[in-house]
Design a protein that fits this description.
Layout lengths: L2 E6 L5 E5 H4 L4 E6 L14 H8 L2 H11 L5 H15 L2 E9 L5 E7 L4 H14 L8 E10 L10 H4 L15 E10 L15 E3 H5 L3 H10 L10 E5 L4 E2 L2
Helix pairs in contact: 2-4
Length: 244
């Protein structure tokens, strides 16, 4: 997690860069390009974000997420990303786009000066290839598992309709789900329960699997403490779940 101060943006934001990356001769940036679970714009999750959040490690992520509150996500990603490309020995990038089944659908090699334009194109493809639920409205959505390897927010808000608000869909957002229930965390989440706070209910076993420390670090770094809150829990019995 150790970083060095690579530069500062015109806004005065320090550009943190992984120390082991600084010691490398060249850097190849690999990133999955997809709609971000919280932010909108021409840049969302992809190569440009990896220049900040990936190569900036925890300290960079903490600083940039605070900057997102004062400037647009696009603005900070572009401003910091350009500094990293200029100063950070970035040789090239590999943009990965997945289909609706989490399978690799496209891999594109990108030169540093192409990062911004190519990412916009790849994001358009990714938005069209997102999985979709087969309905526009639902009273209850039961989710077996959430986890960081599934989505940065535990569950993909672009799929379940929780990108604009924690507990309801925005006016132009679908599907519109009234209540979400989570049954458990994935093993690969290692107790990081980020995303649990976006749901109304969960089984007790999901809370028992939660690592409060790692979840706290994640949601506070991202500037979204609500994502780590514990919803109303239910106890799983033999045939159904009931409130304790």
């Amino acid at each position: 997690m150790e970083t060095v101060l690579l530069d500062r943006t015109s806004e005065g934001i320090p550009v943190h860069f992984a120390r082991d990356a600084v010691e490398a001769d060249h850097i190849l940036v690999v990133g999955r390009v997809k709609p971000h679970t919280r932010f909108v714009g021409e840049f969302q999750s992809g190569l440009m974000k990896m220049l900040l959040i990936g190569l900036g490690k925890h300290e960079g992520a903490r600083i940039y997420h605070r900057a997102f509150e004062d400037f647009s996500f696009d603005h900070i990603v572009g401003s910091v990303g350009r500094r990293v490309i200029e100063k950070g020995r970035v040789l090239a990038g590999l943009g990965v786009v997945e289909n609706a089944y989490d399978e690799t659908a496209l891999i594109r090699g990108v030169l540093p000066h192409e990062f911004e334009e190519q990412e916009k194109q790849l994001l358009t493809l990714a938005q069209g290839w997102l999985p979709r639920l087969p309905f526009d409205r639902a009273d209850i959505l039961l989710i077996d598992q959430i986890g960081k390897e599934i989505s940065g927010s535990g569950l993909d808000t672009n799929v379940v309709g929780r990108k604009e608000h924690e507990h309801c869909a925005g006016p132009n957002e679908f599907p519109k789900v009234k209540r979400i229930i989570v049954r458990s965390l994935t093993e690969q989440a290692h107790g990081n329960a980020t995303g649990l706070g976006l749901c109304e209910f969960c089984l007790t076993r999901a809370v028992k699997a939660m690592n409060s420390h790692s979840t706290w670090i994640n949601v506070m770094t991202a500037g979204n403490p609500a994502a780590g809150m514990i919803p109303r829990t239910t106890i799983q019995t033999g045939r159904c779940s009931r409130s304790p």
